[in-house]
């Protein structure tokens, strides 16, 4: 069986979509149209979008939005209000540091403490009937960059199901969602887990899994070097500074891609032991990669993950 892949550019990255039947190729462009629509309504990197409408109205009034925006905001807010590290209201802090952009600077302690007051997710009011969102304090901002790709990948999978696509690969710039069984006789997919010390084509290990999402978050791709210090882009909503951690990367295997996004963030905030205390879902597995080249994995991945780079050691 052949594979049919198209490459697109959206969400600030290269996107590769694959199906395995020629008659299903039109589903690739339909998925891209969905991606473009989702980006239009969810982005905070433009002056206008549904999420930006919510942000612009902060402290003033509630804003009703589409079902796509509301569903994503609601899930992000509910996870944020559990206060385990993931925070959809972190927008003002991300903008203050702006790591990954040319104008990135280390803020003062005063700027950080002032900005932290605008990142309380319990100051977000949701109205299911009106599908409206109200940020109660002026200056608050939603930032769904840490969760939107996962939501969009899951939406593509649902779209494809309606188009009769039961086998394919959704790759949203490193956020991968595998649909159906692979072409191997076992039906398992083989997926490389990126080495945080090398280029994207180099792997530290290999996963053999059924239809699942694979999401990796790392501190090695966006950072700010200033006055002899290096600051990565994963912010701690409790301190206002980048998360203090010995981790370099967290990879999550999960049925839903949005859960991969959430748990990869929670992994950084809570490390291995703390994440295990929060995790009560056997369908979600995690791989933790540390600066000293040690690797820790959850028990449910021990038969599915093989370390292939001898410079790393299992802990």
TrEMBL record:
Cofactor note (record): Magnesium. Can also use manganese.
Gene Ontology MF terms in the entry: metal ion binding; transferase activity
Bilayer-spanning residue ranges: none
SUPFAM superfamilies: ApbE-like
Protein name, entry field: FAD:protein FMN transferase
Cofactor(s) for this UniProt protein: Mg(2+); Mn(2+)
Pfam family, any one: ApbE
EC number: 2.7.1.180
InterPro entries: ApbE, ApbE-like_sf
Keywords tagged on the record: FAD, Flavoprotein, Magnesium, Metal-binding, Transferase
Species the sequence originates in: Companilactobacillus farciminis
Family, per entry: Belongs to the ApbE family.
Binding-site list for Mg(2+): 146, 265
Domain of life according to the entry: Bacteria
Catalytic activity field: L-threonyl-[protein] + FAD = FMN-L-threonyl-[protein] + AMP + H(+)
């Amino acid at each position: 069986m052949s594979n049919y892949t198209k490459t697109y550019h959206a969400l600030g990255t290269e996107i590769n979509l694959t199906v395995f039947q020629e008659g299903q190729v039109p589903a690739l462009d339909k998925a891209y149209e969905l991606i473009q629509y989702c980006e239009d309504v969810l982005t905070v990197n433009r002056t206008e979008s549904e999420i930006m409408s919510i942000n612009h109205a902060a402290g003033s009034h509630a804003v009703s939005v589409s079902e796509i925006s509301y569903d994503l905001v609601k899930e992000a807010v509910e996870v944020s209000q559990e206060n385990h590290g993931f925070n959809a209201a972190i927008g003002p802090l991300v903008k203050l540091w702006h790591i990954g952009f040319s104008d990135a600077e280390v803020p003062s302690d005063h700027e950080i403490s002032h900005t932290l007051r605008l990142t309380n997710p319990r100051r977000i009011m949701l109205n299911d009937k009106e599908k409206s969102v109200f940020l109660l304090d002026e200056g608050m901002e939603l930032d769904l960059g840490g969760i939107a790709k996962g939501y969009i990948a899951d939406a593509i999978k649902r779209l494809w199901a309606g188009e009769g696509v039961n086998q394919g690969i959704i790759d949203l710039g490193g956020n991968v969602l595998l649909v159906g069984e692979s072409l191997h006789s076992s039906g398992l997919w083989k997926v490389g887990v990126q080495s945080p010390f090398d280029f994207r084509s180099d792997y530290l290990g290999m996963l053999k899994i059924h239809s699942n999402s694979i999401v990796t978050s790392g501190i090695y791709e966006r950072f700010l070097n200033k006055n002899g210090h290096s600051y990565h882009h994963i912010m701690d909503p409790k301190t206002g500074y980048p998360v203090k951690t010995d981790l370099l990367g967290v990879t999550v295997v999960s049925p839903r891609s949005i859960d991969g996004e959430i748990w990869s963030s929670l992994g950084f905030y809570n490390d291995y032991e703390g994440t295990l205390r929060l995790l009560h879902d056997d369908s979600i597995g995690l791989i933790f990669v540390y600066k000293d080249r040690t690797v820790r994995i959850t028990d449910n991945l021990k038969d599915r993950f093989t370390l292939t780079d001898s410079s790393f050691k299992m802990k």
